[in-house]
Amino acid sequence: GAVVSQHPSRVICKSGTSVKIECRSLDFQATTMFWYRQFPKQSLMLMATSNEGSKATYEQGVEKDKFLINHASLTLSTLTVTSAHPEDSSFYICSAIGSPSELEQFFGPGTRLTVL
Amino acid sequence: AQSVAQPEDQVNVAEGNPLTVKCTYSVSGNPYLFWYVQYPNRGLQFLLKYITGDNLVKGSYGFEAEFNKSQTSFHLKKPSALVSDSALYFCAVRASYNTDKLIFGTGTRLQVFP
Question: What is the distance in angstroms between the Cα of B80 and the nearest Cα belonging to chain A?
Answer without folding.
Answer: 24
